[in-house]
Amino acid sequence: LPGYHPFEWKPPLKNVSSSTDVGIIDGLSGLNRSVDEYPVEAISKRFRYDAALVSTLKDMEEDILEGLKSNNLEEYLSGPFTVVIKESCDGMGDVSEKHGCGPAVPEKAVRFSFTVMTISVSNNIRIFEEAKPNSELCCKPICLMLADESDHETLTAILSPLIAEREAMKSSELLLEIGGILRNFKFVFRGTGYDEKLVREVEGLEASGSVYICTLCDATRLEASQNLVFHSITRSHTENLQRYETWRANPYHESCDELRDRVKGVSAKPFIETLPSIDALHCDIGNAAEFYRIFQLEIGEVYRNPNVTKEDRKKWQSILDKHLRKKMNLKPIMRMNGNFARKLMAKETVDAVCELVQCEERQEALKELMDLYLKMKPVWR
């Protein structure tokens, strides 16, 4: 829990109290209630964003001083230190009481949290880098609410004050005593810890059944199915905001369909800035699909006779599926999914597949490939 540490912002944060001794506050505080507004009943608790960051930095005091020392930097360097923060938000599913005696009420919860990824000084010298950025040990929850992540009104009502604090911190510097010396910190926020469902919700995109299939670019389902390879990341928070304005104002007086095509499915006001990046799940799926294909080609020894028929391919796939089912208890699936992908990408799988591969050299190569893959996995996982 954040302890009470004195700190100051230069310039002071806009619309944020300058008192520094704040602990857990009601998640609904800072909400402007107007008479006709949607009543928010959700139970929610949070920290003030800046106080939580200060508390985290104070916890990391030793790491910061150690980092300065190991980079041969002055121990009394005052900064500016640049802190990169990864933001995450996800629904926590059903948290209702399982064995209580009351009525069965579905209780969903949502958690917003952050992780300090790196701290660097001028010339981009990193004095701290989180070794396990996906571990729950370094993930600091900042807001908890008993609400459904699909409940847009409650989500926006509770997270808006938090986001306002974040926006204020982007253009200000924190003055905080670390190791007995007043130092200044700048914060960079990266919203990469959101799953697709939440990205769509907070960035104002249509829900996942939309013809605009992608949260990274403007492709429709049809376009995506015709071109599976060449896409680049084009969507951004700023663009989504502009498109929402277009959707709202309809400046060209278009029909509903024309307008929707113009804004590529942005139809609500984006309220949290996320960083469009390919998520770990789809990295897993893409890589596993490729390995699954390689396994089949190796079973069929395609490197020897490259002209193969469709029947051959089907035969190899069924051999592979049967073998994986027997050896790994991996049931064949229609379409690659996350669970299958993660089970497939293991040393045991390659050992099993190698039993079907004749050439020892190819066996070694396959094992080496999987080994490399598993070593690289922490890059995106």
TrEMBL record:
One of its GO terms (biological process) is adaptive immune response. GO terms for cellular component: DNA recombinase complex; endodeoxyribonuclease complex; nucleus. InterPro entries: RAG1, RAG1_pre-RNase_H, RAG1_RNase_H, RAG1_ZnC2, RAG1_ZnH2. One of its GO terms (molecular function) is sequence-specific DNA binding. Coiled coil: none annotated. Residues 212-274 form the V(D)J recombination-activating protein 1 ZnC2 domain. Residues 8-81 form the V(D)J recombination-activating protein 1 pre-RNase H domain. It comes from the Eukaryota. Residues 83-210 form the V(D)J recombination-activating protein 1 RNase H domain. Residues 276-381 form the V(D)J recombination-activating protein 1 ZnH2 domain. PANTHER family: V(D)J RECOMBINATION-ACTIVATING PROTEIN 1 (PTHR11539:SF0), VDJ RECOMBINATION ACTIVATING PROTEIN 1 RAG1 (PTHR11539). This is Recombination activating protein 1. It comes from Zhangixalus zhoukaiyae. The lineage of its organism: Eukaryota, Metazoa, Chordata, Craniata, Vertebrata. The gene is RAG-1.
